[in-house]
């Protein structure tokens, strides 16, 4: 398997500065659009809070030596709860369950896939979190079957991606998972 080259610290800092500048520019543009189009609804403040939250999480993850998969799971659950709360505060229009949670689940699954590919030797450290994300990803299916969501498309796609991602991760690391299960359970 061919691995991507490790990014050097100076290049990483440059990329971080470019992305930070882009985020600040985007935040400013969102405020201007908000003021021009819908001045009575402060949606840009909510979006900018999300951008800020994202940067705090990214910087924390980079600086701390933590299990990234656990962090992905925790953030997926926390952000899902946050979006439901924001949706509730704005009159419970349903966008949190119809759009936000399925998108977060897709992002969590893509992140887990990248983690698996980049550090497949450490997959066993991520396996339990991957399994928990798969279980969490089944929430949209429950929402669809209980008719809680109006638009089923994103929910079905998110759950499908989750199952596909889990199967793909197992296929990539089946031998390592099997060896770890034998070692842990003395089979």
Fold and architecture overview:
The chain is mainly α. It has a domain at 99-187. Helix content is 81%, strand content 0%. It is built from 7 helices and no strands. The protein has helices at residues 9-37, 43-63, 68-89, 95-118, 123-137, 139-145, 153-185. Helix 4 (95-118) runs parallel beside helix 7 (153-185) and helix 6 packs across helix 7 (153-185). The protein is flat and about 65 Å long. It starts with 8 loop residues before the first helix and ends with a helix. The mean pLDDT is 79.
Strand share of the residues? under 5%
**Sheet with the most strands, sense and barrel status:** none
Strands, total number:
0
Uncertain runs are none
The SSE order reads HHHHHHH
What would you call the structural class? mainly alpha
Separation, N- and C-terminal Cα atoms: 29 Å
Shape: flat
Radius of gyration of CA atoms, rounded to a whole number: 19 Å
Please give the share of residues in helix: over 70%
Q: Enumerate how many helices there are, as a single number.
A: 7
Mean pLDDT figure: 79
Provide a quick synopsis of the model.
The chain is mainly alpha-helical.
From the structure above, extract its key features:
mainly alpha; 187 residues
């Amino acid at each position: 398997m061919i691995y991507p080259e490790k990014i050097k610290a100076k290049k990483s800092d440059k990329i971080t500065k470019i992305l930070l500048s882009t985020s600040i520019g985007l935040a400013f543009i969102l405020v201007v659009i908000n003021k021009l189009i819908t001045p009575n609804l402060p949606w840009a403040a909510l979006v900018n809070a999300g951008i800020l939250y994202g940067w705090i999480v990214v910087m924390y993850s980079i600086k701390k030596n933590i299990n990234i998969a656990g962090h992905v799971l925790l953030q997926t659950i926390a952000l899902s709860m946050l979006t439901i709360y924001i949706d509730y505060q704005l009159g419970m229009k349903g966008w949190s369950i119809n759009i936000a949670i399925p998108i977060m689940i897709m992002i969590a699954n893509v992140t887990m896939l990248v983690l698996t590919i980049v550090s497949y030797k450490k997959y066993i450290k991520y396996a339990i979190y991957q399994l928990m994300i798969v279980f969490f990803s089944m929430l949209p299916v429950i929402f669809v079957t209980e008719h809680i969501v109006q638009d089923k498309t994103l929910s079905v796609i998110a759950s499908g991606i989750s199952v596909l991602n889990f199967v793909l991760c197992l296929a990539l690391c089946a031998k390592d998972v099997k060896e770890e299960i034998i070692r842990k359970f003395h089979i």
